[in-house]
Design brief:
The protein is an alpha+beta fold. The protein has two domains: 7-84, Thiol Ester Dehydrase, Chain A, CATH 3.10.129; 96-238, Hotdog Thioesterase (Thiol Ester Dehydrase, Chain A), CATH 3.10.129.10. 14% of the residues lie in helices and 34% in strands. It contains three helices and eleven strands; from the N terminus they run βαββββαββαββββ. It has helices spanning 26-38, 96-102, 161-174; strands spanning 7-11, 45-50, 60-65, 68-73, 76-84, 134-135, 141-147, 184-192, 201-212, 215-223, 229-238. It has an eleven-stranded antiparallel sheet with strand order 1-3-4-5-2-8-11-10-9-7-6. A hairpin with a 5-residue loop joins β6 (134-135) and β7. α1 (26-38) runs antiparallel to α3 (161-174). It is globular. The termini are far apart. This is Thioesterase family protein.
Length: 241
């Protein structure tokens, strides 16, 4: 039952924003649910739990009340977002030129489980984000130089926060993965502090922060060229059994 204070809308994920074939990119759908329910540049981090893969080109039910939101399909819970009082720790800044050089070591160039991924897939320039994190020396960091496509803006010419969440997403996985390895995003907690501009250049940096059984943990950040923090996140991935 929908209360007077609860808002309900219909959301459909275009195939462009896929991660694994047939399902939404985890970061993009997490950011989309967050932006729809909490607005842009929210004052706190938002924790988004992905309970099940989100299908593409399908009408989904988005409900939000106060600082929480859920995305469902035929009554099944797919995504849940809630504001959290948490300061996210960002991995250290890597200058853009150094981050761009690190891309040469991207494990996905050798073997990529999801080459069509919106964030890290080997997509046509302008179609996907083409963020390819590779190791930065012996620092324990992976990084990529993000050249923001002009084609990811909304009708007002603004890069949506959902795209920034997508940029934060996959890098935390590649901090763990060897060629051909993969896991599925289970939870992403993020906060966007500043706008990202189309045509701009940014550093995406990530690090692995641990592993517990099938769970992989990581942190990521997006930086402007002068080292100003744009956004930060922490992620939990679930590796296959």
């Amino acid at each position: 039952m929908t209360t007077a204070a609860e808002l309900q809308t219909v959301l459909t994920v275009p195939a462009r924003f896929r991660g694994p074939e047939g399902t939404a990119n985890g970061g993009w759908i997490a950011g989309t649910v967050t932006e729809a329910s909490h607005g842009a540049r929210h004052d706190s981090a938002v924790e988004v739990t992905l309970h099940a893969p989100t299908p593409l080109d399908t009408e989904l039910e988005l409900r939000h009340l106060a600082n929480t939101a859920t995305l469902t399909h035929d009554g099944a819970l797919l995504v849940e977002a809630i504001s959290v009082a948490e300061e996210l720790e960002a991995p250290g800044f890597v200058p853009f030129n150094e981050a761009a050089r690190a891309e040469g070591g991207f494990a996905g160039f050798t073997a990529h489980a999801f080459p069509g991924c919106f964030s890290c897939g080997l997509r046509t320039p302008g179609d996907g984000l083409r963020i390819f994190p590779g190791p930065v020396g012996d620092t324990g960091l992976v990084a990529a130089g993000w050249r923001v496509p002009m084609t990811v803006t909304d009708t007002d010419g603004v890069v949506p926060d959902a795209v920034v969440w997508a940029a934060l997403d996959c890098a935390t996985g590649w901090a763990h993965f060897k060629p051909g390895e993969f896991a599925l995003l289970g939870r992403l907690t993020a906060r966007v502090h500043r706008r990202v501009y189309p045509g701009g250049t940014y550093s995406v940096v990530a690090r692995a922060t641990g592993r517990e059984g099938r769970k992989l943990f990581g942190e990521s950040a997006v930086y402007e060229v002068d080292g100003t923090l744009v956004a930060a996140a922490k992620a939990t991935w679930i590796a296959p059994a």
